[in-house]
Amino acid sequence: MAEAAQEDRGQGWLARLRSGLSKSADRVGGAISGVFTRRRLDQDALDELEEILIRGDLGVATAAKLTAALAKGRFDKEVTDQEVKEALADGIAALLEPVARPLSVDGGHRPFVILVCGVNGSGKTTTIGKLAAQFKAQGKSVLLAAGDTFRAAAIEQLQIWGERTGCPVVARAQGADPAGLAFDAVKEAREGGHDLVIIDTAGRLQNKKDLMAELEKVVRVVKKQDATAPHACLLVMDATIGQNAHAQVEAFKGMVQVTGLVMTKLDGSAKGGVVVALAEKFGLPVHAVGVGEGVDDLKPFEARAFARSLMGLPT
Questions:
Q1: What is the CA radius of gyration of the chain?
Q2: Which residues pair with 230 in a beta bridge?
């Protein structure tokens, strides 16, 4: 019975993923159907297909790679839209497989320190709450740190998630030193025997110089508690920003050692293809994707399910 319930939950998640990517699928898969009903795969068709993929935010390099792979063995032959979508889904899954890696917590580090960064509005605090709930469900003890001291709303939001998930929250008044707070949180987590501490951070990218100094200080101060920390640095990104995601990854990689990505708001975006472009360009692990506001709407990233959903194909 438990296995059946788990399978139902799995199917429910796949349905939400398909639904969440429906705007992206309409943009890419719908356009492919418009071009390929039954058509010879000549150079004009390949050029049109490449343009569709670029417009779908998969990026120029990825689009070229996928169309070149499609042309092998099929060039100048008749193809259907279904054949094209299936082949592209296989190609996209192959590109995504190396980066589809769930967030792994090394029990050798206690507490395991996770630093979460991203621009304001990307879904950082909500992601932290969802991760905390998932770790708690695994029987882990989690401490949260409200390190975005610049915004009172961020502190309050994390405190609400703390209450909801039963995780203690280290918080200070708005405007407090985020590095000092992070130091206290790691110390408290260690002394309290917590398995994990998840630290929220500010995301004022327009003040990039100040933000860089702040994040560097947080990392430096955390290392005074544990020289190996932070053990993971997650960059949370809003999928609706499309190609602007590249600039955000570049910016945060210049500030901290980003170890993995979490993509949020795929359900509100027609630009889900950017996940493929980021995988191709940066090769950073994509730990999880979010397709809704609920605790269960953040799941480990699965390459094949994502690729097929992006093409509007059954998973």
A1: 21
A2: none
136/140 Cα distance (integer angstroms): 5
How many angstroms separate the CA atoms of 46 and 261, rounded? 31
Residue with tokens 């998630």: 161
Give the tens place of pLDDT for each residue, 119-143.
988 999 999 999 999 999 999 999 9
Q: Are residues 61 and 186 in the same domain?
A: no
Q: Which residues pair with 179 in a beta bridge?
A: none
pTM metric for this prediction: 0.91
Residues shown for the chain: 315
Q: Give the CATH number of the domain where residue 85 resides.
A: 1.20.120.140
Token code pair at residue 246: 């590249």
Phi, psi of 149 (to 5 degrees): -75, -5
Report the run of H or E that residue 199 belongs to, with start and end: strand 196-200
Same-domain status, 89 and 116: no
In whole angstroms, give the CA distance from residue 222 to residue 156: 23
